[in-house]
Amino acid sequence: MRTKHIAVKLKGWMQVVAALALVSALVACGGGGDSNNNSSNALNGGSLPPSPTQQPIAANAANTVPITVGRGVTGIVNIPTVSVTVCAPGSTSNCQTINNIQVDTGSYGLRVVSSAFNGSLLSALPVSTVGGAQLAECATFADGFTWGTVRTATIAIGGERTTAAIPMQIIGDKDSSTVPTSSCGNGSDENTASDLGANGILGIGTSPTDCGVTCVDAGTAANFSNYFACPNGASCARTAVPLAQQVANPVPFFPVDKNGVIVQMPPVSNTGAPSATGTLVFGVGTQSNNALTGVQLFTTDAFGDLDNSVFNGTTVQAFLDSGSNAYFFGDSSLAQCGSNFAGFYCPSSAQTRTLTLVGLNNTQASASIGILSASTLFGNGSNYAFNDLAGQIGGNSSFDLGLPFFYGRHVYYGIDQTANGGQAPFVAF
Asked: What is the annotated signal peptide range for this record (predicted)?
């Protein structure tokens, strides 16, 4: 997940995502159109690569749920969302369905802002403890941070339901005075739906947990853990946390369709569309609607990264991240926008860039992306779905294939099962 309001938030422990809060002046008349609509005014003498044309399957099976990109909670572009049902452990009645939860293949675990819950359910979600102390979590970004307790809940998405209660994060349920400022917090807190651009984040990338062995081992956890023990709810200090208590990707806890997901988004016009509706499919090769066929498969590191990819002759860490609302990469030849859209690219004409993706299995493929000026795209009016929006990541070592890459594609994620002798993590399209 990579969030962007004004400044780009750099990739951190959970690859945290990108979003731009559009000012109300940008919300005017607008529409969609042909997915290959190369308006001469928009291209301004440049060209874009052909857009992919795959359509999502209908979200009418138990292992599917609709994905919606639209105005959402606060009018932030390219935020794919689903509805998630959260239940108190052991209960089938004390449940609540929460809409506008961002689908994020670049992070791991469910995180929901506390204000989205009714009081009855929130009070019934038990707070996890470590050594008798309340367990909290801090997610830090370049310009802010989130803070809240770790609790357990049963999670249902579409027709899928976890077989047991699992750890999740409640964002913003602890007073700001409890934030351990020396080791968490850089800038302002981001503990509301307005800050996030959604009511929460559904992290369904390749890792089963959000930190892994780094937070299990006391030696590394002392400096790098994002978990904190808070005796009596205060005096919070970094702590090691067993895997079983780390915020968990819900998918591995489904009964059958638990080895991965497919994110399917429709094609959209090169000048944007007001909305887009796709499908999130659970399981890979477990049902007739999720076969792994006709794709290129790239094995990745534990967190879904393709570390040996190449852009502009430089080795980069590439990742396919539905939680980023644009392509983010470093390219000094592309003009950046002014202060109104700081951090985004505003080339004078349409541009194409090509990245070579390289998997740990040595699978290689070229991925060509199109880039239009952000000021042109945002000037189209009330459009919230864009397939050619791009911005600066800072440095030249990473390449973030954000949500624009997903339009017109079926993108597969295989969850890491190597700890149990199973499949290696992978992405495919």
From this structure: 1-30
